[in-house]
Amino acid sequence: MKTISTEGWERPKFVSAGEEPRLGWLPIGDLVVDPSYQRPIDNAGRTVVYRIAQCFSWSCFAPVVVAPIEGNKFAVIDGRRRTKAAALAGFERVPCQIVSATREQQAAAFKAINGKSTTLSRMRLHAAALVANENCAVALADICARAGVELLRYPVPVKRQVAGQTMAIGAIAQCFKRYGEETLITALQCVTQTANNKPGILSAFMIKALCEVLDTDHESRDRGLTLLEVFDQIDLVALLRAASADAASRKIRLSQAMSDRLRAELSRRLAKRPVPTATRRKPLELFSERPPTIRFRGKLVAKRIPQPQTS
What we know:
The protein is 44% helix and 13% strand. It is an alpha/beta fold.
């Protein structure tokens, strides 16, 4: 056996560990879960719970990490599945490591512990980061709110989604970093504020394609209400099918084929809608006096009358 030694290791210059935790046995009935960043246990999770319960052993049971909250309850930060397994095995109490943490700190701890020990989706990590008030997560949530997009917290089949929902948090984060806020919000609104707003359309692929095309043409991107009216006439699903055929016949990447199709369609339709030079730079102010029924980049703009489809 060897003792634990720090000889030869460099100590960190600054440590902020917070208040020391205490250990204790707590009734399972006093433990609760925060659903804002912890999703329901799925089928795979249920399998794990049953496996732990069937082979239950205290020697394999790590203390559950909890934080005291109002009502003499304790929020579970880590250990929900093994706690449920203990309950299934007939136990009423579990050993807990009790830490002092605000709700934001609880979410940050959940992300830190589970992000390293288990495979968490980008959606769950984002939800935890948002509760923890991390700057990047807050910025992405604000962008999505202004664009009329709802970020799902866990995977949901397309048939159960509603218009405006997306699981593509990774793509949104990448586009925000690469293209910036204006391009990302406009790209999202070209879906959510037009006839294209249908379940499943806000895929990672579609978001990236829209951002790439709009970012290469800021003049078109900044056409405000005109841009949205043009996207009312563009069927993105049909365009994607055509791009798939192009990619196969031309032997190019689907992303390139989609960008080419989208750029050509946008250019053709916008060419029929000239805009006076004086209003090109301020598409939002142009409509500020009309009935506000939609938003463009988070600001209310005019009521749109959908245009008929043209070939």
